[in-house]
Amino acid sequence: MDADISKCFDRINHDALLRKLGQTPYRRLIKQWLRAGVFDNKQFSNTVEGTPQSGVISPLLANIALHGIEKRIKEFAKTTYMKWNGKQLSPSSKAQRLTLVRYADDFVILHEDIKVVLQSKAVIQEWLNQIGLELKPEKTKIAHTLEEYEGNKPGFDFLGFTIRQWKVKSTKQGFKTLIKPSSKSIKTHYRKLADNISDKRKTIPTKALIVQLNPVIIGWCNYFSTVVSKKTFAKMDMLLWKRLWRWASRRHPNKSAKWVKKKYFPHCKETRNWLLNDGEYILNLHSDVPIVRHIKVKGNKSPYDGDWTYWSNRIGKYPGVRKEVTTLLRRQKNKCAFCGLTFGPTDLMEIDHIKSRSKGGDNTYKNKQLLHRHCHDSKTALDKKTYPKFRPQDLPENYVWIDDMLILKHDVPMKKDD
């Protein structure tokens, strides 16, 4: 079920919101903000509900007001009747099978049973009534991710993505889930690119056009770089090139295609060709952005929970921790390079040189690793452990050393001269 909350920022109940804030020292200040009123067309209006429109604090207040909806759904899931292989599931297993994903006032509910989804809708509506909100009927859609349901095509759109399952024979389940940029997102992005290359801007310099297009391309691609987007990126490059060629050709209607190509798409980047550039600035391609899968944040993790090793490994930085440490944590996937165990927030750790500086090792990241303090001590002890060098005079009488073995002299085979 894909749902949206009707007028979320306009109808939040102030008393319910303030109760959720608890005894924070900022409660009194936020209360004053909520009830300060607004001026519109030189007329003052009291604000008895909702949060300030376009205020920087409004999204945070809305999230505070909606906090707890996930917990309510999990509590409801534990009371439902669910079976697997003829056996009743445990409450914790039931809670895991019902998923709610929320971003601001937009959310989706995922479950294999349509009855549970419809019951969840009623539970959420009842919970929203407590804070003065309700679901928007025209934006609430129930769909199946694999098959058509009540005239709705398989899959659903959420935050610019299309989530859908496809029937295949290569998996045990008989289907696979693909998340792609939605058709609406693709059309909106293409329209934005096309507006920058319209005939009205035929005289814009090449450098200025590239400067305007590159941020749009990089920003859009970065947003969709965690899902199945490679074919979409390639298609957008093709459509963009057609637009650019049309733009360049119309600037010089009396010039040949060869001349236009040489002026606007000269050879660059050794093996790259047909890229819009002016010798200094080069247009970025959608397909140049790598696809990197997103890793879900664990459970109820928060950047403020003190688990600095987890967040350093995830985002590569953390307040109060050296960049060198966070970089090594991320490179080692939060594991000690000596014992292989995962680092904890209370573990003592040290940076070790793989090849010691005294033996010619450098001070670059390639020669560094992060270890537990006790692992560092163990490694240092092994590095300094020495063995007595072999001396020929230490051999027993009538013995020789051949291929790491002691052999009697008379057992050594004689070699014939050629």
Description:
The protein is built from 14 helices and 14 strands. The chain has 418 residues and is an alpha+beta fold. Strands 1-7-6 form a three-stranded antiparallel sheet. The protein has a three-stranded antiparallel sheet with strand order 8-9-10. Strands 2-3 form a two-stranded antiparallel sheet. α5 (69-78) crosses α7, α8 (183-196) packs antiparallel against α9 (206-223) and α12 (308-315) packs across α13. The longest helix is centred in the middle third of the chain and has 22 residues, at 230-251. It is extended, with a radius of gyration of 32 Å.
List the helices and strands and how they pair.
Layout lengths: L1 E3 L3 H4 L2 H8 L5 H8 L3 E3 L2 E3 L12 H9 L2 H10 L4 E2 L2 E2 L2 H7 L1 E5 L2 E5 L3 H16 L26 E3 L2 E7 L7 E7 L1 H14 L9 H18 L6 H22 L5 H8 L43 H8 L7 H9 L17 E5 L14 E5 H12 L14 E4 L2 E4 L10
Antiparallel strand pairs: 1-7, 2-3, 4-5, 6-7, 8-9, 9-10, 11-12, 13-14
Helix pairs in contact: 5-6, 5-7, 8-9, 8-10, 12-13
